[in-house]
Amino acid sequence: MKIDSTMAAIVTGGASGLGLASVKALREAGVKVAIFDLNPESGEAAAAETGAIFCQCDVLSDESVDAAFAKAREANGQERALICCAGGGNAIPTARRDKKTGEINIFPSDQFEWVLKLNTVGTFRCITRAAAGMMTLEPVDGERGVCINTASAAATEGQMGQAAYSAAKAAIVGMTLTIARDLSREGIRINTIQPGIFNTPAMSRATPEMLEALGGMVPFPKRLGDASEYASMALEMIRNGYINGETVRLDGAIRMQPR
Description:
The chain is of the alpha/beta class. It is 43% helix and 17% strand. The chain has a 7-stranded parallel sheet with strand order 3-2-1-4-7-8-9, with helices on both faces. Strands 5-6 form a two-stranded antiparallel ribbon.
């Protein structure tokens, strides 16, 4: 699919990190972009920086997502590309014994459910709305639109404490081919990027020494990924009409250790 000024796109989690890098890459190509993000302050700042529009959006809510899609389409027209970067996680062991007291604590079920709802259900919620809108468009070169999801190395090599995050991201990987098959007759493609360790605001609490150690875990190149490299992959998945139903690792060949 050609990426140019005739295209409208939506990026969830677009106010920072991988999402913001994707917004910038799309805008550089002339695309009309709507940033979906929960944080109005960072969302408005990202919109001002990039020339995109900001639509406050909570991917946990049908009503919020529907309102954000309506605002984006009123401003930019029906989107042909969706990049889903909204998500998050926690770090809680499945069951843990306190070393001092011996007390045994378990992973709270509501916290497990929240991570799945934020990542998996939130992603799926946005895909359904985007797909329904894309189905109203006439095909261009045989296709109506493209959706890009974000998984994680944790989908296949979750570290200790990442049970919920691993499950949520593995579900995104697992549903990719099925959704591609569901939407194939409508000329809509869907792919997933499975990033490793990237230098994003989520890493801001790490010390320089920790960041260096994390980069050293990557076989080659021995560094953290740059958000622009994620954006480059996302745009290639939009451009290349034969990439469909795929999950592509973007991780410098790293395989995560237990901790």
